[in-house]
From TrEMBL:
Organism of origin: Anisakis simplex
Keywords (A to Z) from UniProt: Cytoplasm, Hydrolase, Magnesium, Metal-binding, Nucleus
Reactions that this protein is recorded to catalyse: diphosphate + H2O = 2 phosphate + H(+)
Entry protein name: Phospholysine phosphohistidine inorganic pyrophosphate phosphatase
Group of enzyme by EC: hydrolase
MF (Gene Ontology): inorganic diphosphate phosphatase activity; metal ion binding; phosphatase activity
Pfam families documented for this protein: Hydrolase_6 (PF13344)
Enzyme Commission numbers on file: 3.6.1.1
């Protein structure tokens, strides 16, 4: 324990779904007992940023939802993968075929989507239909260098009605069928975490991470 806590933690990266609240298909969800008090205490004693693979709504909408659940946090402190994905697509000249939640489509409005040369996958939830997956498969199948850009790569996430299959399984299915490369721009990508850490003005060794699963990553000096 002494080796793990060899240096004081000055800041925290917190996941949102499964850590602050559990989502719901029929409502805004439910705050996890004790999470509101924990966030208030961390804000008062350290630097806090929130990292989420949430891609079914914009950062502004997510902040509003958390506010309704009772959380007091700064919208600018929330980091989600869609804006990072847009930057990646533009930088690399990629034109996406989207499999994302209808609430996230607008996030990609500034990206050229004609004659797609890659597939972007997010939390599509009920839009992960056979037709949607097969359309993506057909595109990837005809590309010389098939590429899938994922807004995260989780195995499952927690809702109030129980655990739900997450994006990773759907992406792996397409990869299996097409031998596509996968580039992840959300968690657990190290660059995604580093973006939030840089915004905190801290070094990687000053920051602890709490996600919905037990995680150990190279640039954090504790496990939670």
């Amino acid at each position: 324990m002494e080796a793990v806590l060899r240096k004081p933690i000055r800041g925290f990266l917190l996941d949102i779904t499964g850590v602050l609240y559990n989502s719901s298909p029929n409502s805004i969800g439910r705050a996890i007992p004790g999470s509101i008090e924990a966030v208030n205490r961390l804000y008062s004693e350290s630097v806090v940023r929130f990292v989420s693979n949430e891609s079914s709504e914009s950062r502004h909408e997510l902040a509003n939802k958390l506010g309704k659940l009772g959380f007091k946090l700064n919208e600018e402190h929330i980091f989600t993968p869609a804006p990072v994905a847009v930057q990646y697509l533009k930088k690399n000249g990629l034109r996406p075929h989207l499999i994302v939640h209808k609430g996230a489509v607008q996030e990609f409005a500034s990206v050229d989507q004609t004659n797609p040369n890659c597939v972007v996958m997010g939390d599509a939830e009920e839009d992960f239909t056979y037709e949607a997956m097969n359309s993506a498969f057909r595109l990837l199948h005809q590309l010389e260098d098939p590429l899938i850009v994922t807004l995260g790569f989780g195995k499952f996430y927690q809702r109030v009605d129980g655990p739900c299959l997450d994006l990773g399984g759907f992406a792996k299915a397409l990869q299996y069928a097409t031998d596509a490369r996968i580039v992840t721009v959300g968690k657990p990508s190290e660059s995604f975490f580093r973006t939030a850490i840089d915004d905190m003005g801290l070094s990687k060794d000053d920051v602890g991470l709490k996600t919905s699963h037990r995680v150990a990553i190279s640039f954090c000096n504790i496990q939670i």
